[in-house]
Amino acid sequence: MKSQLRSIILFSTLLFSLLTFSQIQNQSYLLYIDQYHQIAVRQQKEHGIPASIVLAQGLLESGAGKSELSKASNNHFGIKCTDWAGEKVYHDDDEKGECFRKYNQVLDSYEDHALFLRNRTRYASLFQLKPTDYEGWAFGLKRAGYATDPSYAFKLISIIENYNLQKFDTQTYLADNSTTGNNSSSKSANGDYYGSMGSINASQNHEVLKANGVRFVKSLPGDTYKSIADEFNTSEKRILTYNEINLSTRLSPGTRVYISYKKRKALKGFDNYIIKAGDSMYSIAQVFGIKTASLYKLNLMDYSQAAKVGQVLKLR
What we know:
CATH topology of the domain at 23-73 and 106-169: Lysozyme
Strand content: 5-15%
Structural class: mainly alpha
Strand order of the largest sheet: 5-6-7
Distance between the termini: 20 Å
Number of helices: 12
Shape: elongated
Number of strands: 9
Radius of gyration: 21 Å
C-alpha cells in the first residue's frame, strides 16, 4: 500500500512539473526555435518528419542547444555511436562515458537525425502517420525506444503545445500550395486536406490546437463565442455546450475554446492531478480536455464540493 502511495505521489509530482513547465515559456527555447525552425520545416519537406517533432526533440535533447553534449559535439538529438564511422565524443548518459556522434555543424546533426529515423525499420510505421499527428509521432518514438525516459512522449507534446510548434507542420503544405495561387488549404499526395491539427482548413483565423485529442482554439481580442462558431461552421449553442458555459459567459482573450466535445477521461498517462491554489474543477477539466461532470464522477464527488488545494484528483 505504501509503495502504491509513493508511486502516486511520484507520478503526481512529475505531472505537476510537466504542467508547470507547459505554462512557462523559456527565453532560450524561443531563441532556439527562431534559429532552427526553418531547418525543421525543410526536414519535414524532404524527409516527412513533422517539423514540430524535429524542433521538440532538438529542444529537449540539447537543452535548447545549451547542454554539454550539444556544445561539445553539435549533437542536438542525443544520437549515439551505433553504426557510426565519424568523429565521436564521450558523455555520461544512461551509463557513464557513453559514445555519441560528433558533427561539424548543427545542420549536420539535423540531417543525420532525419536519416537515423528514415533508415531504421523500427521507426517505419511513424512515416505512415499524417504530417500533423505530432502526438502519434511522440508516442511512436517512445514505443520504438528512441529514449528511455518513461515520460518522453509527454515532454515532447508539452513542448510542442506550449510553444505552438505545430504551426510549422502546416508551413510546408502552405508553401507548396502557394505556387498554384491558392492558399486556402493544404493538400497531401493522397488527396486529404490538412489544416492545423489535420482537420481544420488552414485558412481559418485561429490556429487549431489539441488537448486530450480534443480540438480547441485560443480566443483573440474581439472574439465572441458566436464569431468562433461561425468560423468553424457550427452554432453558438454547440460551442457553449462543448465548453460547458451559457450565453452570459464573457469571452476574454487567450481563453481556451473547445470546438468539439471533451472526453470522459484524460489522456492515458495523465492519471492523477494535485489541485493547486486557483484551480477549480471546471478549470482542471478544461486543461485536460475532459467533461466537468466526468471529473466529479471519477472522484465520487458531489457537484457542491469545491476543489481543495492538495487534493489528488483522478483524471481517468
